[in-house]
Amino acid sequence: MTTESTTRSYHYSEFHPRWYRPRVSVYWWLWQRHYLKFILREISSVFVAGFVVMTLFQLAALKGGPQAYADFVNSLASPIVIGLNVIAFLFVMFHTITWFNLAPSAMPVRLGGKRLPAFLVAAPSYVLWVAISVFVSWLILQ
Amino acid sequence: MADTITLEIARYSPERDPEPHFQSFQVPVHKEWVVLDALNHIKDTEDGSLSYRWSCRMGICGSCGMMVNGEPKLTCATFLSDYAKHGSKIRVEPLRYFPVVRDLVTELSEFLAKLKKVKPWLIHPNQPPLAQGEFLQTPAQVDRYKQYSMCINCTLCYAACPVVGLDPIFVGPAALALAQRYNMDSRDQGSDDRIAVLAHPDGIWGCTFVGECTRVCPKHVDPAGAIQQYKLTAVLEWIKSFVMPKGADAK
Questions:
Q1: In chain A, fewer beta carbons within 10 Å around the N or the C end?
Q2: Which domain holds residue B133?
């Protein structure tokens, strides 16, 4: 190869085509609703962690005695905290449902040589979720 | 339904264009015409320089994958009438995240290198002599990997996967699913040879389970499922390496 063709190699030549390499935009996740749903699912884990941290604070307050616990509960009553909790709750629901629905894809269950339909694999998670929720509600409301 | 439909086609000539641009063509809408038929019509009657790949026209060869209105599709199975019903235009672009050679033709050598890396063939170090006859498999054994063996390497899953775009060295959905196809094959003994490439940050651990690969796959291969299942295998192998070191395992 001549020096000239070497120096020109970044231009088009018969055996070295100049490919166009598109760059991925920072906003790729806004391109379509499936990407957006994925990003929301990933972000939802922040809210799950938020609920865990709040529960730890709640336990710490419980350990601090009745007054500390009453102060903690009062601090949750402000409209901003309630608003944040509602948003967090919606995200946690979204997190739970999307991951429960993905479970059959990651865990194929075979029975008698045949793969169980996806809804049957996801169903036990939902049943357990409802059962635990009913039990916790019963504990609180009794 | 409209008689004609507008196709906006991405054009790129490496000799002339710094980057791709769109060119519009009017094509007739026939009930049985797919996007590939429209491209062939344009090439035959309007612009012979239009470049794209195609071969079988029946969803087997996997060469006519393109972005159709932003979705990775086999153009031989994407009917014009589905778009004409809503009076919309059809925008045809080369598959996303691949370098573009010309117009709708993408460069596949990076993909092929990734494919080769996962050794998608039967590995059988202790192969018995041919005289002993063929390898037999029960229908249940075939069933374990059959879904993954349907891959036609059309690379639609790569064009759907944002991880492929953001991390070009990610091995990617089709190659990982094909590796799993051979790992799950009762005739194969190569899973130990593949694990170094698969259980790697650029292998299965690069996957964030967006799930788009599975959604767009025209052959219902479910690469996302294959990758998540292999994640479990890799973790179990990692635990096993502590409990049963290699020396003891060889006995």
A1: C
A2: 109-250
User: Is residue A85 a contact partner of residue A92, using CB atoms and an 8 Å limit?
Assistant: no
Same domain as B118, residue B99: no
| CATH for the stretch A30-141 | 1.20.1300.10
B121 in the same domain as B83: no
Interface test with A, best of B210, B212, B214, B227 (most A CBs within 10 A): B210
Structural domains counted in chain B: 2
In chain B, what residues touch A31 (CB-CB under 8 Å)?
70
**Boundary of a domain, candidates B90, B106, B122:** B106
pLDDT score for A19: 87
Residues of B with CB under 8 A from a CB of A: 12, 14-15, 17, 19-20, 70, 96-97, 99-102, 107, 139-140, 143, 162, 165-166, 208-212, 214-215, 222, 224-225, 228-229, 231-232
Last residue of a domain, one of B60, B83, B106: B106
pLDDT for the residue numbered A16: 59
d(CA B34, CA A109): 38
| CA nearest neighbour of B31 among B75, B81, B97 | B81
Taking an 8 Å cut-off on Cβ atoms, the answer to whether B70 and A32 are in contact is: yes
In three-state secondary structure terms, A35 is helix
* Inter-chain CB proximity A106 and B232 less than 8 Å: yes
Are B78 and B45 in a shared domain? yes
- Its pTM stands at 0.88
Please give the ipTM for the structure prediction: 0.85
Average pLDDT over residues B65-74: 97
Residues B206-229 have a mean pLDDT of 96
For residue range A8-50, what is the model confidence (pLDDT) as tens digits? 444 555 665 688 988 899 999 998 899 999 999 999 999 999 9
Q: Strand, coil or helix: what is A111?
A: strand
SS3 of B26-91: EEECCCCCEHHHHHHHHHHHCCCCCCCCCCCCCCCCCCCEEEECCEEEEHHHCEHHHHHCCCCCEE
